[in-house]
């Protein structure tokens, strides 16, 4: 319980070596050890989606994953996706549509939305709503977010509305 | 400037906002979005300071219990534990408070401590603070603090709270009645006697809460060397927090600085003073180092204010022709063991009394509301404050009356809504209305939703045993509150706001405003207004909010007041600065201010728009070469103005909502298909931001209508204090929401803006409840309770 474990992983393309307690979850590791505060903590029990990050290409709830489980893994956070430009178009659509208010859900929401766009990508509102239904937003009522993801899906498919 | 949507009848007379390149009425992106989207925001949970320690609160597992003994000896030995502090120990540095205001006559409450002393009064009240080098260590220590309790009888049911055999929670108060208000206007008994039909119903509202995605968080930093306390907190009212913290820690206001950076949702949850936040300030003072408190989600459910737990009997008297003759209500609400501080927990009930029947002509109205104590978490003001209750009761009764006399729900409203040309006028409860637009809003709604078409579709679907419902709800909303809201009751909660605008040495603008930003767009609307008045492009306007050391003194952002009050202050400050700039420009150009204007960051000829001098060049001369100005000129490139409404205590808005939904009569599930809102918030500064406020507000109301309820057992245990069991609206269940506007600017301000923050929440649940009842009409089932769970619907259908 109190013996620290050595882990090595890649975070946003940078090699990280750390000694962590087995009980430390990935969200706390990213925020407190690596100061990557763009990953937010909303519920700490896997419901709200604010802490969504990518591990080896899949989106996960970083509050439900232990840091030790990311040994040898590649972790990507909102800071990485922003700096690489991977979601610049999606962020532009969020901006144009005012698809965020307080912004606390936004990093997780962008992660989940980008996952939809990469895995499926159809501009289908119902399916977008379903895919984002694990990410809680109290401010927007979701419509603007769905609009922004739909618009990005159309743009990426090259079929403007 | 009568409407934004129509060309001015007299283009010669332009207001300061009807200018070329004006940002008013235009959708422009908020300046702060990029930061938030890139994960570069700064929320309180992101704040770290040197020597900072973390506090975790040990909370009472009982709804009502005497604290016999606290043994923290083992916990204190845990490595990393800095201090374990009881309520009594903390009381050396912080005084208790009582949440009452003098204008709510008779309101009473008991002294509340930052940490419970001797007795815990709800499940979740803090009984000790554990401070450690990390939150994890503090949580470990909390597990091994041993508290001996003697459980006391818990008062949980509001309906029996006033019974003689029910224990009194605070014996010094004499009974469990916190507040009662009675109103009797017009000739109610005669009106009911004259009615052809009198219909009554009990309306029941689930207790729910705000569930801000960012839990309440605070970092308090007492710097003993400066004798100053800096509080980093996501609050809607920084100056209120400054005053309250100072008052109870024995400091002057000037010794407290409140810094409010990014806030992860507020909705009224973060406009109050919470005991655990007060304890955190006090712990910093006691331990002479920064202390961080971040609530976890279970604590949020147990300690963030709850709201809406009302049971309201109501009746309506109506003539056979649809004329409504009277409303009467008897409302009961349970607020937990204390009235919240400093805004009190009587406001919601007070609003219910104020607002019932508000959209309608009848002057016959009787109301009683009683507010009782109970051993549950505290209740207080949450987005919409009383509006959803009043709207659901009023609109539910109107629909029941329509059903009884066989009149269409839209038609009965048309026959009773106050006429659009009847203003100014007052409601039976004395509310003053400057200009509302119920009929124009209803007309617009009808065309947006194709009401007649939907009725045809509904009838056709019923043939196929598919049950769709249409629900309509008209509403009024209190916005732009003056001192009448809190100030008159003795609360040091400012109803005025201030904006300071200054020009930097390159001609850009920096605005400091006392309103705050929690995502509504305060920063954007301030920049839009200032940029428009000044003729400066928005990317050259920087807005700074949320710091009591730097912004003017003011109320903050709550009660739909930011745009209407803070926006007007911004307009007036910008007007002064504009005049000052033109005075300097005239001196430089040997012209007169009247002949000059500013457009696109350049001083131009007012007549032909020809460029004369760039603001950047003007600023250079003012700041670096004032020696070249004519003698006697002392430029003043900074201006400050404050504003508070004086003419009307509140700027009322109005609107109407409609819901179109399907009820599955086999499963009891409700599927929301579409939702419409038409509202009138006066001048619209940024249409997109207004629409998104409306949509977000609607969805909060939809959550209340269908899902959200804090479920307490009879012993006062909250049984669903987590996000898996307390259901909130997620994207999969929410409909698209169409928003339309009628524009009746308030003439009390030059800006003309009223609030829009709560309109969505005010009427959404009422529209849904009416739609469900409309869908169930063939079955003769009527439900007057929310949330409308499948169980409730199947029970009403007699299926379970």
Folded structure, characterized:
The complex is a heterodimer of chains A (161) and B (800). By secondary structure, chain A is α+β, with helices and mostly antiparallel strands. Chain A folds into two domains: 5-78, Roll (Ubiquitin-like (UB roll)), CATH 3.10.20; 87-157, [2Fe-2S]-binding domain (DNA polymerase, domain 1, Orthogonal Bundle). Chain A contains six helices and five strands; from the N terminus they run E-E-H-E-E-E-H-H-H-H-H. Chain A has helices spanning 26-33, 78-84, 88-96, 106-119, 125-131, 143-157, and strands at 5-11, 14-20, 52-55, 58-61, 74-76. Chain A has a five-stranded mixed sheet. Chain A is elongated and about 50 Å long. Chain A starts with a strand and ends with a helix. The longest helix of chain B has 28 residues, at 562-589. Chain B has 800 residues and is an alpha+beta fold. Chain B has three domains: 33-43 and 496-643, 2-Layer Sandwich (Aldehyde Oxidoreductase, domain 4); 47-152 and 216-303, Alpha-Beta Complex (Aldehyde Oxidoreductase, domain 3); 313-337 and 346-483 and 647-796, Aldehyde oxidase/xanthine dehydrogenase, molybdopterin binding domain (Aldehyde Oxidoreductase, domain 4), CATH 3.30.365.10. In chain B, the strands form eight sheets. A seven-stranded mixed sheet of chain B has the order 3-5-1-13-10-11-12, with helices on both faces. At the A-B interface, helix 2, helix 3, helix 4, helix 5 and helix 6 of A face helix 1 and helix 17 of B.
